[in-house]
């Protein structure tokens, strides 16, 4: 098994590692497992809440615990790979992730599940940065672009496949296991990847790294906890003062961390983060694009999933199936991105963001025109355009960002990039939550008022006396207001509970049908209005990404730049 100390880019005469493509395959398998886990869990939350007797706050911490653990350790995990070997850290992270996935699947209480999820997030943070680091040090210019293109394919697949697989596993309820397979599915994948990686993955570490900056790790970890936790929990907890204080302290702590890193560099010591990376325009602007792009991607899926499931009443599996065309388009575009990028340079990013903009406009127009009779296939053309745009951005952008990074610092750079993306995702979801649920409440009241005359007429046609009709419609309006003005839409407010007033037996069914039809109309139209409103955020984010692309170095060739500038082989 070969070993490499990556102190610089691959020279033209450097013999290429013959196992590099097999190594990439196992890296991407592990990456897919981690990405799958970030989205698969959401479909099992309601089931595990009932099974474990968890509170709503505990269920939220099942998600938050993983996200905080993952986000806090990404930069440190990347740096540890530079110091002690990327293969070693990858195997450690993979083994730990597999073990903690098994523990999550066997959890016997809400608190144990939360604890295991935090550990699972920490394990993922050790594994994830090593993937981009290995691509950076194993592959020369043109091959590196192809490798990042394949990584983009896996990212797209992981985001989409999670909800679909989660829905299928929950529906199957294998051996009465309820929610547990959404975690246990990682175990066979992880064991396969672990055995495979031990055979084909070469060692790689930096000769320039000189010890771990422990105070820097502590400062950065504290800053990220203070930042990520409030961003994730803010909306559900109503943004109390203590969460806002945490956000303010995160800025202060991050400033102290940067000052400390500069002090170490001035003394000739090795900091946790090489701040000089941000003086490179490709890295700095590219990381900013990644932050904005990531803030829109995950929040887009959250908004669309809420619309399909809560608004249109689709199940998780059916909602995930509606996005299959998007997934296929991502795969096609990602596979083409390396070849097109070699010809188009940074323009492939302009093309990708433009397609995302046009695709989103198509989604907005289609939903606005067809929602009352939506069948699922109407969005396919717009989703294909959006998927192509995603595929033309995700891989080439990674190549641009890391194109001028010395492979000796590949782990640190990959960790910084992954952290930027994680914070962007969390912030995007938080913004979407505020926009969508804020608009949902007001739009539900408006739609409720609009449907009330029709509901009144329908109830009168059943033969109900006017006094009873007035009471029922007033109760309906109160129910609509209370239902859509609460943080958890799954909770049935008191105003929506069945009342003691008994209806004549012959009127129970027609009155119930009238109320159900009116409620469905309110839900559908209110969610449509909220979705159309919040998707403007994604549109603005994609437009900003499109503009930021032009701030990248003008001569950037996203697939062949490194080869041209450093005389790396491009075969």
UniProtKB/TrEMBL annotation:
CDD domains per UniProt: MFS_MMR_MDR_like
Key words, A-Z: Membrane, Transmembrane, Transmembrane helix
A Pfam family reported for this protein in Swiss-Prot or TrEMBL: MFS_1
Coiled coil start-end: none
CC terms in the record's Gene Ontology section: membrane
Record-level Gene Ontology MF annotations: transmembrane transporter activity
PROSITE patterns linked: MFS (PS50850)
Domain of life: Bacteria
Transmembrane helix keyword on record: yes
Ranges annotated as spanning the membrane: 21-45, 57-77, 89-108, 114-135, 147-170, 182-202, 214-232, 238-260, 281-307, 319-336, 348-367, 379-402, 423-441, 526-552
Protein name: Transmembrane efflux protein
């Amino acid at each position: 098994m070969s070993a490499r100390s990556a102190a610089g880019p691959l020279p033209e005469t450097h013999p290429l590692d013959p196992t590099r493509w097999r190594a990439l395959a196992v890296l991407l398998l592990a990456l897919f497992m981690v990405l799958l886990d970030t989205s698969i869990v959401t479909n099992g939350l309601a089931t595990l809440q009932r099974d474990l007797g968890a509170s709503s706050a505990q269920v939220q911490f099942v998600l938050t615990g993983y996200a905080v653990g993952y986000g806090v350790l990404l930069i440190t995990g990347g740096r540890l790979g530079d110091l002690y070997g990327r293969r070693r850290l990858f195997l450690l992270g993979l083994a730990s992730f597999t073990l903690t996935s098994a523990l999550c699947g066997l959890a016997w209480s809400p608190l144990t599940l939360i604890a295991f999820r935090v550990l699972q997030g920490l394990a993922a943070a050790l594994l994830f940065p090593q993937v981009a680091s290995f691509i950076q040090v194993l592959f020369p210019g043109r091959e590196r672009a192809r490798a990042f293109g394949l990584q983009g394919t896996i990212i797209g697949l992981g985001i989409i496949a999670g909800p679909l697989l989660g829905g299928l596993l929950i529906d199957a309820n294998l051996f009465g296991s309820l929610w547990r397979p959404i975690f246990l599915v990682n175990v066979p994948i992880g064991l396969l990847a672990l055995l495979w990686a031990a055979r084909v993955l070469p060692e790689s570490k930096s000769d320039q790294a000189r010890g771990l900056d422990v105070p820097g790790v502590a400062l950065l970890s504290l800053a990220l906890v203070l930042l990520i936790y409030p961003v994730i929990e803010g909306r559900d907890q109503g943004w109390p003062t203590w969460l806002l204080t945490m956000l303010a302290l995160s800025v202060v702590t991050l400033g102290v961390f940067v000052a400390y890193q500069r002090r170490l560099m001035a003394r000739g010591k090795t900091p946790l983060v090489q701040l000089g990376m941000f003086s490179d325009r490709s890295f700095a602007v590219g990381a900013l694009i990644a932050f904005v792009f990531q803030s829109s991607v995950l929040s887009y899926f959250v908004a669309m999933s809420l619309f399909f499931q809560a608004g249109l009443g689709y199940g998780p599996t059916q909602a995930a199936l509606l996005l299959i065309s998007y997934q296929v388009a991502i795969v096609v575009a990602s596979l083409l991105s390396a070849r097109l990028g070699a010809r188009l340079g940074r323009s492939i990013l302009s093309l990708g963001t433009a397609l995302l903009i046009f695709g989103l406009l198509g989604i907005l127009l289609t939903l606005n025109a067809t929602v009352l009779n939506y069948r699922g296939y109407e969005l396919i053309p717009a989703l294909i355009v959006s998927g192509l745009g995603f595929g033309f951005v995700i891989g080439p952008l990674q190549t641009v960002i890391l194109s001028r990074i010395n492979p000796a610092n590949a782990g640190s750079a990959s960790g910084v990039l992954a952290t930027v993306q994680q914070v962007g995702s969390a912030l995007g979801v938080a913004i979407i939550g505020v926009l969508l649920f804020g608009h949902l409440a007001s739009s539900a009241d408006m739609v409720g008022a609009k449907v009330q005359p029709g509901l009144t007429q329908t109830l009168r046609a059943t033969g109900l006396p006017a006094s009873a009709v007035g009471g029922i419609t007033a109760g309906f309006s109160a129910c609509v207001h209370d239902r859509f003005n609460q943080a958890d839409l799954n909770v049935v407010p008191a105003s929506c509970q069945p009342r003691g007033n008994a209806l004549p037996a012959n009127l129970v069914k027609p009155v119930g049908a009238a109320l159900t039809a009116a409620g469905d109309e309110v839900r559908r139209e209110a969610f449509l209005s909220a979705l159309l409103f919040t998707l403007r955020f994604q549109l603005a984010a994609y437009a900003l990404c499109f503009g930021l692309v032009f701030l990248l170095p003008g001569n950037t060739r996203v697939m062949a730049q490194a080869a041209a500038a450093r005389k790396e082989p491009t075969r």
